[in-house]
Description:
The chain is α+β, with helices and mostly antiparallel strands and 240 residues long. The protein has helices at 2-10, 12-25, 33-36, 122-126, 156-159, and strands at residues 30-31, 50-52, 56-59, 68-73, 76-80, 86-89, 92-97, 104-108, 111-116, 130-135, 142-148, 163-170, 173-180, 189-196, 205-207, 210-212, 215-216, 221-224, 229-230, 235-239. It has 5 helices and 20 strands. The strands form 4 sheets. A 6-stranded antiparallel sheet has the order 1-2-3-8-5-6. Strands 9, 10, 14, 17, 18 and 19 form a 6-stranded mixed sheet that branches. Strands 11-12-13-20-15-16 form a 6-stranded antiparallel sheet. InterPro entries: Glyco_hydro_31_C, Glyco_hydro_b.
Amino acid sequence: xxxxxxxxxxxxxxxxxxxxxxxxxxxxxxxxxxxxxxxxxxxxxxxxxxxxxxxxxxxxxxxxxxxxxxxxxxxxxxxxxxxxxxxxxxxxxxxxxxxxxxxxxxxxxxxxxxxxxxxxxxxxxxxxxxxxxxxxxxxxxxxxxxxxxxxxxxxxxxxxxxxxxxxxxxxxxxxxxxxxxxxxxxxxxxxxxxxxxxxxxxxxxxxxxxxxxxxxxxxxxxxxxxxxxxxxxxxxxxxx
Length: 240
């Protein structure tokens, strides 16, 4: 349970941004699969899985005493939240391992999720560096956003006491663009960038034009650590 709760804490920046979009545009936070895939008749009667926003597929275990779960994976490429390994689905039911310490989460291609190193409380978590998870589409593109305020005050959006950052990937270039900034966000840094679905090992990675150490795994996950970029500082990262 502790592992699952810490995972949820790590996802708070993503969840908080979903609530902002719900407040601003009326989007749903948790939604059934048919909301995103209305033409896929297989999703119409699914009631044992759900999405956070359009990007995160949750397949919970709802039966006692089992160590696996069968879930539907809509057509497209999905990435394991923990490892970044890809699942290329034609729209099919898949059996997934589900030990007690593991919750099955998959990220939809073309998405960028802001996460954060979890602490034992939400207050402690807020002070930790952010980790951005990039799930590349088949066209090597992705998009995401982040809404950030002090986490306590009311009407921060209406009063302008917030920061809003947009993340985008195209042509092997990740960009962070600050559309609105507040002083609260100066306390937060972006520490790590994990890019899922990088087809070839890069020869080098450039952060604002300067070479940066990186790691690349066989499951096509590129990781760049120790970025140390302020949340309200726009930047670009390119892999060649």
